[in-house]
Design a protein that fits this description.
It comes from Streptomyces achmelvichensis. With about 260 residues, this protein is an alpha/beta fold. It has four helices and 14 strands. β1 and β2 form a beta hairpin.
């Protein structure tokens, strides 16, 4: 059930310090497949020429997400029924494409929004994300919590609004960061699910980085996050449904195809 966050624990970092620490963690510093095979309903004959029964139509099989291999599919699991797939062409690319999929029991996975242009970290992707490595973590991560400087646009996720989501300064190419954290969705990499995106608990330790969000695009690469155009961020927030156990599937195409 959606509801306000409980106050942070005693000793929590003040809002101003939290805003400043965003710059030092993962977030940007202010940063088809072809058509399915046609059904084959021709009869199968045995060696004596008799009818052995009709072949199962290929189109009746539930569809999988294009470009997702068996290892990545296993990490998505069976409980998740929403998946935002963010993929770039190479491991060193910082431009990506994001598509939101939903799973139906009979039809399988179908695209419901996108593809949208996206950015990821300046140096691309990594299987072993580290603090300040300027790479986005590869993997499948839950999406359970949201927030931002602006009012809730209508998401079913818990939404924490406050001035600590203010981004300041400029990014790698000199683009202003103003408004980058107007809307954010926390990516459950090295964080405690079910808390505000501003909770800096790091279960894997501080050296593994954190503060990896989906946030408003500022026109360039991020420090570790994924960014989407402002209108697409609002659309994503409205579509994410906690009852569908949403996840983000993120990384270069070669990694997600495993």
């Amino acid at each position: 059930m959606k509801g306000p966050y409980m106050p942070l624990r005693t000793g929590a970092i003040p809002a101003v310090a939290l805003a400043a620490s965003l710059v030092l963690t993962g977030c940007g510093a202010g940063v088809t497949a072809g058509a399915p095979p046609s059904a084959d309903t021709s009869a199968v004959t045995d060696t004596k020429g008799g009818r052995a029964g009709a072949a199962e139509p290929l189109s009746a099989r539930p569809k999988e997400i294009p470009g997702i291999g068996p290892a990545t599919r296993a990490r998505i699991g069976t409980a998740s029924r929403q998946a935002l797939v963010v993929t770039g062409g190479t491991r060193d690319a910082n431009r990506a494409v994001a598509t939101l999929y939903e799973r139906d029991d009979a039809r399988g996975w179908e695209a419901v929004a996108g593809p949208w242009p996206a950015h990821n970290a300046l140096r691309g992707w990594t299987d072993d994300h580290r603090q300040n490595d300027l790479r986005s973590p590869i993997g499948v991560f839950g999406l359970t919590d949201a927030g931002g400087r602006l009012p809730d646009p209508g998401t079913a996720l818990p939404y924490d609004r406050g001035p600590a989501f203010t981004a300041r300064g400029t990014n790698f190419d000199g683009e202003p960061l103003t408004g980058a954290f107007d809307y954010v969705v926390a990516i459950n990499y090295n964080r405690e699910p079910g808390t505000t995106p501003l909770d800096w608990t790091r279960p894997l330790g501080p050296s593994k980085g954190g503060g990896i969000w989906i946030h408003v695009d500022h026109g360039g690469a991020t420090q570790g996050c994924v960014s989407l155009p402002r209108g697409r961020m609002k659309e994503l927030l409205k579509q994410l449904d906690p009852d569908r156990r949403p996840v983000v599937v993120m990384g270069p195409a070669e990694s997600l195809a495993r």
